Amino acid sequence: MSTRRALALAFAFGAFGLGLRLAVPVAPVDESYRDVVRYYRALERP
Fold first, then answer.
1. Record's superkingdom (predicted)?
2. pLDDT confidence of 36, banded at 50, 70, 90?
């Protein structure tokens, strides 16, 4: 694969990823999820 083609492919994948990130809504983390994360982090500490 040529360097030019590899760069074009990398740019295309980057643009696709950015477009996907902008197109798909991301739900914010709710408080119950944060409680679960805090619980499991507390279990890791001795």
1. Bacteria
2. very high
